[in-house]
Amino acid sequence: MSVVSSTREGPDVLTQPGLGLLPTDRPVTEDRGHRAGRALRWLAGVNEDLLAWVPGERPKYTALGGVVLGTATIAAFSMSMALTEVLDGFHVLILLPVLIWGVFIANLDRWLVSSSTGGRWGRRAGLLVPRLALAFAFGVVIAEPLVLRVFETAVEEHVHQERAAELTDVESAFTRCNPAPTADESSRAAARAPACDGYRLGLRSSAGAVGEDLAGKRATEQSLLATIQTESVEQARRDTLASNECAGTPGPGTTGQLGRGPECATREAEAAAYRESHPVAEHERQLRDLRTDIGGLESQLNSAQQDYGTVRADAIGAKVAEVRARHGSIGLLERFAALDELTSANAFLTAATWFIRLFFIAIDCLPVLVKFISGTSRYDQLVELHSLTAQKVYGQSIRTMEGALIADLNGRRHRTDNDADMARSRTDHDRRVHEAQLDVDLDQQITVLAERLRGRQGSYT
Fold first, then answer.
1. Cα–Cα distance for residue pair 313/180, rounded to 1 Å
2. Domain identity same for 141 and 195
3. Torsion angle of alpha carbons 77, 82, 84, 85, nearest 10°?
4. Residues 6 or more apart whose Cβ sits within 8 Å of residue 205
5. How many structural domains are present in the chain?
6. Cβ atoms < 10 Å from Cβ of 315
7. I want to staple 208 with a disulfide (CB 3.0 to 4.6 A). Which of 156, 181, 263, 395 is the partner?
8. What distance in Å separates the CA atoms of residue 311 and residue 320, rounded to the nearest whole number?
9. Whether residue 269 is found in the same domain as residue 187
10. Helix (H) and strand (E) counts for the chain?
11. Pair 94, 225 in one domain
12. pLDDT tens digits, 1-17
């Protein structure tokens, strides 16, 4: 753009792309050497050339830039906390996303505060609501990792307790759903329930067959023992009866006569016959052998049960180890869930969590709130005036360019019309000259023919 000089006394007006209109004789900036202050005001979106006209506003906008820097720093710290929890510790690689996030939040807040300038309160209020909503949304994102950091100890303890309870439940479920082969029927029925689907290990053990064999032999032992007891009692009764009969002892079933008479022989024969048909000694030998077998089976059963218990314990331990391996480090979502469970069971903790959360959200909204609460400054009025003036000048420049373009197009069209008219005139002239030349040539030909005719007529006379 060109420099336009004023016809009256006063400053020239310089137009620059992206800057609009600024007086060329503006005051010289007094704090150009204070780079830190200028950097903070840059974060607040301040135009130093305009601010130079109201130097008293510099501290205000320097402080506003410090607020923007503070929110960006907190956002970067929040991102570092979140990535540290996700990656289970600090890594150098997280510095890049942390830096990017901090720069992003700084530029976002810079845009929020710089786009809220202007002198009209109605316009400022209209700009506040959407910008405050945007700042609130980002504040929620930034606040959550910081809240988790504050309650980190309680959250991690809760997560560890839940994981330990889960491991205990898994181990109990596998134990319940895989009972010992010699367990009672109620335990076996519980293991067949639908609740055990997915917890059955399908282990095989020889204890079942040994247990069944042992149970059969124990039943045989009880039966044989009952038989021996019955036979022994009966044999003793018969022997006593024969002895009393032969001794002449009076009593039930005896004659009371001393000597070995027919009744004595009969009683002795009955006792001997019963002893032969009911061999108690043989049964007692069988009982001893059976008890020896039972002792061996009990040893086998104990060994099989120990082996099964070891195999089951190893299998259950492997399943529990798989669950423990899936736990890994405490992730971000797991922390959020743990915090939600903690706060849902404790009203005081809920209130404290929301207080801290709202505190960090309010910090992130501070740039917009500070900008709005501080009211309309002289710098804001200059910004609005500068914007309106630049808009007017740009509109006038566009209209001037439009007029120049239209005039140029009209001139080009006029020249085109003149060229067309001249071309038509030259064409008409050339056509008339050509027609005249044709007339002359025709007259000459007629004259030549007439002279020839006159010459022929003179020769005939």
1. 11
2. no
3. 140
4. 181, 304, 305, 307, 308, 311
5. 2
6. 15
7. 181
8. 14
9. yes
10. 13, 2
11. no
12. 333 333 333 334 444 44
